[in-house]
Design a protein that fits this description.
It contains 11 helices and 13 strands. It has 341 residues and is of the alpha+beta class. The protein is globular and about 55 Å long. It starts with 12 loop residues before the first helix and ends in a 14-residue tail after the last strand.
């Protein structure tokens, strides 16, 4: 056991996997418990499953309540479930927190809950010297009929890999909000920066509509919300959970022009940048037409970015125009953290 300080970002998956493997769950109603790659628990409550997830917002303080609702709701929806109830722990820094700060956070939470039909049912608020910026940690609960449950680990060799919208939606919004002055210095026009900020709402960081549409349209074998670590981490987490390998085609991955430009200016890889708003899912080839038609009817861009293979040396490969493959690694540290170094 090493005493070396851990870097910022997610825990290494091998460390987390080792820790989780030593834990014991004695309640038989827990259908899916803590596992690497799974972002929510599944609990059998009789005629349906209760889905539970938790996530903090630490990358940004602007619109923090809105982020908290949508990021947590996404983890519910990727299980084919509808988000229903939310609890929030709100930690505010001493010396900076005001009544206006608190009201803005709750207004942001309310703004995000309303269109999703989510209810705030409790939580905790505190001003503390343990944080230097506002932190909102959310707990979201949802429910799904048993025969409609989708998990991260369900994909199989031969499945196609689908991605909605493009990447990195959340990363683009964060760069625009946190680094506006630097972007202007680099020659980025104010209207382009504003478009980047608006990515939070359009195309938006919610995948609830995308996920529920996919789940009701076709036999979806896995769904995942690529958040911290971006698309690369999301793919690796799905592959790890299902014990398969994945191949994605570089030119098939839709990267928003604003996101690509902003990331380039800060030496950030858009494939490894927080990407809430894009839904990653797999389905058999036979479901392709049905899914493409359904997403087209709803006006949601859908791309096929690769396929699933039997497990091999690497979890995820990225393929270029010549057909050459290179590993697309799992990195616990999101590229967006370069902004705050």
């Amino acid at each position: 056991m090493t005493q070396t300080p851990l870097p910022s970002g997610k825990l290494r998956y091998d460390l987390l996997e080792d820790i989780l493997s030593r834990l014991t769950c004695t309640d038989p109603r827990v259908t899916v418990g803590p596992r690497v790659g799974e972002d929510a628990a599944v609990i059998d409550i009789g005629d349906r499953y209760l889905i539970a997830t938790t996530d903090p917002i630490t990358f940004t303080a602007e619109n923090i309540g809105y982020y908290a609702i949508n990021v947590n709701a996404n983890d519910i929806a990727v299980h084919g479930a509808r988000p229903r109830w939310f609890m929030a722990t709100i930690l505010l820094p001493m010396g900076d927190a005001t009544e206006s700060t608190v009201r803005e956070i709750f207004e942001s939470i309310e703004q995000a809950m309303r269109p999703l039909g989510v209810s705030l049912i409790g939580g905790h608020t505190e001003v503390t010297d343990s944080v230097n910026t506002p932190v909102v940690s959310g707990l979201m609960l949802g429910e799904v009929e048993k025969d409609h449950l989708v998990t991260t680990r369900g994909c199989r060799p031969g499945d196609l890999i689908f991605l909605t919208k493009g990447v990195p939606i959340e990363g683009t919004a964060i760069i625009a909000a946190e680094k506006e002055a630097e972007l202007i210095t680099c020659g980025v026009a104010p209207d382009e920066i504003q478009r980047g900020k608006d990515f939070l709402f359009d195309p938006g960081i919610s995948v609830v509509t995308d996920a529920l549409l996919a789940a009701r349209t076709a036999t979806v074998t896995s769904m995942h919300d690529p958040t911290e670590g971006g698309l690369a981490a999301g793919l690796n987490e799905v592959a790890l959970a299902a014990d398969v390998s994945m191949v994605v085609v570089r030119d098939a991955i839709p990267i928003y022009p604003e996101g690509g430009r902003f990331c380039g200016l800060f030496d950030i890889d858009p494939l490894m940048t927080i990407s809430s708003g894009s839904l990653l899912f797999t389905a058999p080839t036979s479901e392709r037409k049905r899914l493409e038609e359904a997403f087209s009817d709803e006006g949601i861009h859908l791309s096929i970015i690769g396929w699933v293979e039997e497990s091999s040396k690497e979890r995820v490969y990225i393929e270029d125009q010549s057909g050459d493959r290179t590993p697309l690694p799992y990195r616990e540290r999101d590229e967006i953290l370069k902004l705050f170094e």
